[in-house]
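Good morning C.,

I know you're traveling, so I'll keep this short. The sequence:
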Amino acid sequence: MAAASHLDTLDYAKKLEAAGVPKAQAELQATALNDALAGAVASRSDLSNLAQRIDGNFASLQAKMDGRFQDVDGRFDAMLANIDARFQSVDARFDAMLANVDARFRSVDARFDALLDNIDARFHNVDVKLAHLESRLEARIGSVELKLGGKIETLQWMFGVIVAMNAAVLVQLFLK
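The tokens, ready to paste straight into the viewer:
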């Protein structure tokens, strides 16, 4: 950064002399200050060169960042695809388990239906046997009633005969 200084050393030395600084010392201070500022002050071309280097570095940094962002985006997309695949795998396993549970429930339902059909058949058999037993009992009761009915008629006839004979005996006892 070697640039020309914008410091007017003659004017500066005259101002120091007017302030009471000896001429030799004022000229020396002006020269020293000019030398010091010459190394510290940048020229327009220095600033232009620096701006070009910064722009170049920024473009390089931007390209590196773009590459890294693309890399991160690619890895993120791969991770998301992996996560999606895992979720699909879990969904498939859940679907398989649900299908298995549904199949088991259908099997249990079929077994319960078979048991209920068997129970219904047994109750039907019991109903048939009870109906047969009831008809047999009704037939026997009818037979017993028929037999008793005949015997009751005989007993009624015999009781009537006994009453008539007793009446005849009493009549004869009172008439004699």
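Safe travels,
E.
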